[in-house]
Amino acid sequence: MGLFILRRLGVMLLTALCLTFIVFFLTNLHPNLEKLAKTQGNFRMSDEAVASFLGNRGYLQSTPVKYGQWLGVLPGYVIEGTDGEVRGRCATQGMAVEDAPRFCGILQGNWGFSTVFKEDVSGIVAKRLALTGKLMFWVMMVMVPGALIIGVLAGMREGSRTDRSLSSVSILTTATPEYVSGVIFIALFSSSAVGLKWFKGTATSAMESANFENFFLPVITIALYGMGYIARMTRASMTEVMTAQYIRTARLKGVSFGNIVLKHALRNALIAPFTVIMLQIPWLLNGVVIVETLFNYKGFGWVLVQAAGNNDIDLLLAVSVVSVVVVLLTQLISDVGYVFLNPRIRIS
Q1: What is the pTM of this model?
Q2: CB 3.0–4.6 Å: which of 25, 79, 136, 330 could bond 284 by disulfide?
Q3: DSSP readout, 56-75?
Q4: CB-CB neighbours of 207 under 10 Å
């Protein structure tokens, strides 16, 4: 197991480097850099002025060199600009270039500076990631138990009235996008036009102090959309397990139906849904953009939209790195979890 994890960590590192390099290359294409220069300077800047701006700040170096400096494996640039000013990548405001450290990439904890929010990227990402983490936690607390219960109840007796009813509900929730269900929930339970003002708080206030009134609607909006998919997977896996030979043998031995479900069928039926559940984590991290925008909850997805829309290169790169790491870690946890759910699975 230890050797397997080490091999996977090596593959994860290589994958992360490849993916981050692709994102770095795309964000550093000349049109993006030109837009950055005009945003920071003047939208009427000439091509010569744009080239001077970018050259003075190290943007015109080769992509591998810039990527190495961003990672922190290559020394940061020191450039004497056309205006005579000496600039260094590692020199912060008020620091002399000669006093600055040589390396200042993400490996040294320097994630860059946001051109939109005018503060360090690391602080922005940490704050917004914590807010989305709080939202993800409560979504998982609602979505996973509810989906498993629905899937198990539907799969216990295939073709029954309960199975058909719960399967229809699961399909309905999965087929309804968050921007539809979210608008419906706001109109029914939060708008004064209808009269059912059950939830008077806003998700913006939940950023500081979350409670049932201001946090339930965004949580249930996301949970319902993902719940149906997990429930359908659980139902299909449960149906397959309930027709297995060892289940029939247990029935012939007189084991009660409840014990058959809980002690024999459930553990094996959870292998396939476990994969889907783990895939919900990266989906929740980046897929809550619509819900966070709809309810004005300024979390990780909201920052992603702001970074992409305003061409905030350092912030967009940081968001991409966090997303890649979360996806790779969830895949590793999924592989390790298989062994504990099914002892017949062995890692060679």
Answers
A1: 0.80
A2: 136
A3: HTTTTS-HHHHHHHHHTSSP
A4: 20
Cα-trace Rg, the chain = 26
The first and second tokens of residue 25, run together, are: 């290359």
Rounded Cα–Cα distance for residues 228 and 5 (Å)? 32
Which stretches does DSSP call E strand in 54-171? 78-80, 86-88
Full pLDDT tens readout for the chain, 348 residues: 677 778 878 888 898 899 889 989 988 888 888 888 888 777 778 888 888 888 888 888 899 999 999 998 888 888 876 666 777 778 776 677 777 788 888 888 888 888 888 888 989 999 999 988 888 899 999 999 999 889 888 887 788 888 889 888 888 888 888 888 888 888 887 765 555 667 665 677 778 877 787 888 888 888 888 888 888 888 888 888 888 888 888 878 888 877 877 777 777 777 778 878 887 888 787 767 888 888 888 888 888 888 888 888 889 899 988 988 888 888 888 777 776 766 666 555
Q: Which residue has the tokens 């997303």?
A: 323
